[in-house]
Design a protein that fits this description.
alpha/beta; two-stranded antiparallel ribbon
Amino acid sequence: MSQSAAPCQISEIVLGTEFILSHGQVIKNRLFKSAMSEQLGDKQHNPTLGLVTLYQRWAEGGIGLSITGNIMIDRTALGEPKNVVLDQLSDLTNFKAWAQAGLTNGSQIWAQLNHPGKQIPNFICKQPVSPSAIALSRGLEKGFNKPRALAEFEIEVIIDKFAFSAQLAKQVGFSGVQIHGAHGYLVSQFLSPRHNQRTDQWGGCLENRMRFVLAIYHKIRQQVGDKFPIGIKLNSADFMDGGFTESDSMAVVQALADAGIDLIEISGGTYESPSMVGYKAKASTLKREAYFLEYIEKMRDLVDTPLVLTGGFRSSKAMQEALDTGATDFIGIARTLAVDPDLPNKVIHSASYRQSLRKLTTGIRAVDKMAMFDVVWYEFQLARLAKGLSSNPKLSEWSVFIKTLFAAGKYSFRKRRA
């Protein structure tokens, strides 16, 4: 049965039910691949053919909608060394192949557009930019340099770059774009009173702090037209004292919904407080497998915009239970797909399917902390899939640590995107 943005009977919605966005794009099921850091850009920051192989594999595995790993809008502002950049200097050849691969098997693929702001490791950039000249904390100041505050004209330039990248994404064949507004990147920095302490029209009250993301949305809309889908990944909260709160988030959601955004994915946390990977999650939350369900239930009462709930899902039972609440329209999954690209087909066809992800550890706490296995181990799995190989759930943590250390030295273990 087809599902539009208007609600239908909860009992009729299952994981395999299609969804029709307000402008007519059909998403064939309720399974949504959330962005992961692939680290598969070449030296010129164009996509390698490995990304083509990887996203075709996920499409063949049954995913309804894939969101790419963050594509940077500015090649002078990279979050990681092997980021893909989509701008006026990009070679569009492999972008076109990537987008086409993501449309295999009736799937959709959207390009996630991002600017890291101050979340750029210090071995990449000596002086990053941010709304205000405020450094990251909680030990991250060792790996990230203090930023300088953006001038107003620079803010306008960045807004234009988001729009230009979105125009290119449409040109090369992506079926939509997603603004990365979560996890402490630049859009998230503007929204947070902890990181945005400007006194001009871009800071201060929430109305001013959300001006940046709304300007990005409207500028993209001007470039891509009314029928091209635009989504956003947004924090439910930053989970930091003095940061972006749940009430702030609710207000931003309402403003974006009123502006006409097509899809909202809910996550949470930042590098300083990584709730998106279950950091300090309560036992009851982990058992339910849905990190931000309580928040999205409140949000559903405010807006009719299609919603995505991402974080923690491992079983078809938990996914279906989240859909049954009526609070979310899509189930966001990520690391499970790095281990098993056929997961969508499996959970759709088996109500009892469950995938277990083991706790990754070398047994030495200091090594675990340095290695960041929640990101790096999964990047190794993505690299295998990108080569046309099967994933290796038994891949040794020590093997990953040693190979990464020898490949790129200590810089490989600087804080990475989650």
